[in-house]
Design brief:
Layout lengths: L4 E7 L3 E8 L4 E8 L3 E2 L8 E2 L2 H16 L7 E8 L4 E4 L18 H6 L6 H8 L8 H11 L1 H6 L2 E4 H10 L4 E2 H4 L5 E2 L4 E2 L1 H7 L9 E2 L4 E4 L2 H7 L6 E7 H8 L6 E6 L2 E5 L9 H5 L3 E4 L6 E8 L1 H11 L10 H9 L9 E3 L17 E3 L7 H27 L5 E5 L6 H11 L3 E4 L4 H13 L6 H8 L3 E4 L5 H11 L2 H9 L3
Parallel strand pairs: 1-6, 6-14, 9-12, 15-21, 21-22
Antiparallel strand pairs: 1-2, 2-3, 4-5, 7-8, 10-11, 13-14, 15-16, 16-18, 17-18, 19-20, 22-23
């Protein structure tokens, strides 16, 4: 029988999903469980960790449920993709020595403030391509060094989240290149860990497994993991890694397209063979991560997305009982509002110092309110403001990568909003393409699993076979009007700079 199915453990911070994918890119079975951090027992509020045993129990339960829907003899391989930045040390038997500290945890915030007293910000950036953010793995390593030294002394390896789960599956230690790229400890140009930065954190490079490239077979499913999951023993476990990189591959973006991963947060990124960070890139908040394929990089900007829409929806589109209007209802009403939203301008930087407004340190702002302003105008203005923000990010990315952008490939929940997609196309003057298969991360990880199992000769063939239908939103005649509106919007950040700098 042909082995034409793979299993993907798709682990997000809010949901853990097990998906079975066929070689044509169809999701043939899926099962999810909720996921959340837990407060570390006996520790202060805000100390948030992951319960690995609970996480494993949820994944194995979902996996067994999935397998009821498929013929397991058709399985060719499996793989794991998760969020980035989180990990923990393990002993020689693979037992975690400390709960994995979550990216939502607050304990490393003081280190994020003081690291620049010891290290130069530009040196960090030119080596790693990363901004200093409290959840950086490097800061967690330094925190463990200062507060839990015995843990590091007893450690055999430090593993990131994909490696921790792969260890339970196949008993092998691994660190994939995409997860390493989220640590603020990777020498990006050399695609290896930086001994200089690890030294600052108080750990040695030998603490980490050698880097594994996505698509390589890490090991084979152990008898215990087979019993836990219901998967066949000896099933190949193929390396994947950080979810963002696999969404970029799974959406099928070409070399002159940028990828917009649109959810609560939006990540605008590109796949390029150039890593040449500049001080302007640093000031603009550009980060660079390691692509899923060697010798490629993912410059990207992180900015607020549908989190702003959900804020608006919760406060202006809910009745007295808290019941909220549906997104289709909101879109239909906002579509009747003319471009420009009756003079309302929304600056969507609701998390200050993120996105293109980082340079100006501006907060979320609504301008142009009148007595006649209604919620539909506010919603339209929010979609427009998010689209102006996107165009600013595109301009930063184009300047940095020196690659012209000919289109935007949108994935994630925000790509399902047709009105928003059309406004994006009009504001940016570029076609916006969405894919039929919404689970781009799963699709990308599956491509590497199939390639690792030998079903495809490489990722290019996998993309050809697995990326399905698309919908394209072409710029409309509103482009000219939005050009004028955008240039007005682009002055707002600098104009408000002094206001938001006030004590």
């Amino acid at each position: 029988m042909q082995r034409d199915l793979v299993v993907v453990f798709d682990c997000g911070a809010t949901n853990l999903t097990v998906v079975v994918v066929d070689a044509g890119g169809k999701l043939v079975a899926s099962s999810s469980r909720p996921n959340a951090t837990v407060r570390q027992p006996g520790k202060p509020e805000g100390w948030l960790v992951w319960d690995l045993d609970a996480l494993w129990a949820s994944l194995t339960s979902a996996c067994r449920e999935c397998l009821q829907q498929v013929d397991s003899s058709r399985l060719a391989a499996m793989t794991v993709t998760t969020w980035g930045a989180d990990g923990t040390p393990v002993d020689a038997e693979g037992k975690p020595l400390y709960p994995p500290i979550s990216w939502q945890d607050c304990r490393t915030e003081p280190l994020a403030s003081t690291i620049l007293e010891e290290l130069d910000e530009w040196d960090i950036y030119r080596i790693t391509g990363y901004q200093v953010i409290p959840f950086n793995t490097l800061l967690k390593l330094r925190w463990l060094h200062e507060n839990e030294p015995q843990t590091l002394q007893e450690a055999h390896r430090f593993l990131m989240m994909p490696g921790l789960l792969s260890l339970r599956l196949c008993g092998q230690y691994s660190l994939d290149a995409t997860s390493a790229g989220t640590m603020m400890a990777m020498d990006m140009s050399g695609r290896r860990l930086s001994s200089q930065l690890l030294q600052w954190a108080g750990v040695d490079e030998a603490l980490f497994p050698p880097l594994t490239e996505p698509g390589c077979v890490i090991g084979h499913l152990t008898a215990q993991a087979a019993a836990d999951t219901g998967l066949p023993a000896e099933l190949p476990v193929v390396a994947a890694g950080h979810d963002t990189q696999f969404a970029a591959v799974g959406c099928g973006a070409g070399p002159e397209e940028v990828i917009l991963s649109s959810g609560t947060w939006e990540i605008l990124m590109q796949r390029t063979d150039r890593f040449a960070p500049t001080r302007d890139d640093l000031a603009d908040g550009l980060l660079t991560e390691a692509d899923a394929q060697p010798d490629r990089y993912n410059p990207q900007l992180l900015m607020m997305g549908s989190g702003v829409i959900e804020w608006l929806r919760g406060r202006f589109f809910a009745d007295a009982t808290g019941k909220q209007a549906g997104h289709d209802e909101m879109m239909a009403a906002a579509a009747k509002v003319a471009p420009g939203a009756d003079g309302i301008t929304v600056l969507p930087s609701f998390v200050p110092d993120t996105g293109p407004q980082r340079r100006y340190h501006t907060a979320g702002t609504v301008l142009g309110l009148k007595l006649g302003t209604g919620r539909d105008e506010l919603y339209r203005a929010t979609l427009e403001g998010l689209s102006y923000q996107l165009r600013q990010a595109l301009e930063i990315l184009a300047r940095s990568s020196d690659v012209p952008c000919r289109g935007i490939r949108a994935v994630g929940g925000g790509s399902r909003n047709a009105l928003w997609n059309q406004i994006r196309a009009d504001v940016c003057g570029l076609p916006v393409t969405t894919i039929e298969q919404r689970e781009a991360t799963v699709l990308g990880a599956a491509m590497f699993a199939f390639t690792g199992a030998g079903l495809f000769s490489g990722i290019a063939q996998a993309q050809t076979q697995m990326v399905g239908g698309t919908e394209v939103f072409e710029p409309s005649p509103h482009v000219e009007q939005y050009e004028s509106l955008y240039h007005a919007y682009a002055t707002v950040g600098s104009a408000l700079h002094e206001f938001y700098r006030r004590p």
